[in-house]
Amino acid sequence: MPKNLVIVESPAKAKTIEKYLGKDYKVMASQGHIRDLHKSDFSIDVEHGFRPIYEIPEDKKRCVADLKKATKEAQMVWLASDEDR
Length: 85
Hints:
This protein has one domain (4-79): Rossmann fold. It has a three-stranded parallel beta sheet, with helices on both faces. It has a two-stranded antiparallel ribbon with strand order 3-6. The chain has helices at residues 11-21, 61-73, and strands at 4-8, 25-29, 36-37, 44-45, 51-52, 54-55, 76-79. By secondary structure, it is an alpha/beta fold. β1, α1 (11-21) and β2 form a beta-alpha-beta unit. The protein is built from two helices and seven strands.
């Protein structure tokens, strides 16, 4: 595994960016958002400062597992997600 892991949302962006960064970088895609607000209980923990309650959707669990594995193998992780959340 290369020293640096860059996480982006789009698989197309991942391929393009990886070409420019070189051999010390691995670029992986999260394929969009990897967590959503929990669907029940209003998604807010009122008793703890109105903290949001997130969950990983079933269709993203494999992707999250792959990203976690890659982060353990990298020396540095760069999160380059979109600014929309």
